[in-house]
Specification:
5-stranded parallel β-sheet, alpha/beta, Rossmann fold, 2 domains, 12 helices
């Protein structure tokens, strides 16, 4: 067996192997450079240890972020909030309001957001942008179009993949449900949707984008009483934004991929 000490010095390779053996792969990657700087007097002993630990934490956080982003199922080519200009809308949301939402304080209080209005005004872009920002801050996020969410709810008891996805959705800190109202749903599906909203009530934040005004939801769901129960939970601790204006999508097609 090769000695861990060579010419009076501990082998870097041996140290890296020990770090990796304990699962500290990111610390191992920077070890040689950090030790070299420490030997040159750049780092004290405490600073050396801190640098190694920070490298490990940062590496793990980045891997978690990438995993969370992949699991979110965002639409392709999601853009950042900085690419959206609220001044191009007639009304709905201001830059100040958008900046406030970007602080994510509403997530910690299980607040909900509802973005309503005609297609093409940037509702999905804002919702996905907030989701991306939240993932970068360490939150877990799920993004589903209403049509696909209904399919998941329908198949969850029959298909393992759908059941697994539904469990993940329920555990997410932010659930983005896109395009509510574009596709009619039957009463059974509305009941399953109500169950989901009830399960995550005051445990997760929900972002809804919809082309339907709130009074039109009863017709969409097919049951006024059930719709009231759903809205009671969604509107509690919620902020609603009603978008108006010319199609942002047509003016900025590149922003939507």
């Amino acid at each position: 067996m090769k000695s861990a000490v060579e010419n009076g010095k501990v082998s870097i390779q041996r140290l890296c192997g020990l770090l990796e053996g304990f699962g500290l792969k990111d610390s191992s990657k920077v070890l040689a450079d950090v030790l070299s700087q420490a030997e040159d007097g750049v780092y004290t002993t405490r600073e050396l240890l801190l640098t190694l630990l920070e490298a490990e934490v940062n590496g793990r956080n980045e891997r978690n972020r990438l995993r969370n982003r992949a699991a979110a199922h965002f639409p392709p080519n999601t853009k950042g909030l900085e690419e959206f200009d609220p001044s191009e809308l007639e009304s709905g949301i201001t830059q100040s309001q958008l900046n406030q939402l970007a602080e994510l304080g509403w997530v910690d209080t299980f607040g909900n957001l509802i973005f309503a209005g005609p297609p093409g005004l940037g509702k999905t872009m804002i919702a996905a942008g907030l989701g991306e920002l939240a993932i970068n801050e360490g939150y877990t996020v799920c993004f589903e179009k209403m049509e696909n969410l209904v399919n998941i709810l329908d198949r969850a008891d029959l298909e393992r993949r759908a059941g697994f996805r539904l469990k993940y959705i329920k555990k997410a800190q932010i659930i983005i449900i896109d395009e509510v109202g574009y596709t009619p749903i039957n009463r059974t599906q509305a009941n399953k949707f109500f169950t989901l909203i009830s399960d995550v009530y005051e445990r997760s934040s929900v972002i809804i984008t919809t082309n339907k005004a709130i009074p039109e939801w009863a017709e969409m769901m097919g049951d006024p009483i059930l719709t009231t129960a759903i809205l009671d939970r969604l509107l509690h601790h919620s902020r609603c934004f009603s978008f108006e204006g010319d199609s942002y999508r047509l003016k900025h097609p590149d922003a939507f991929g």
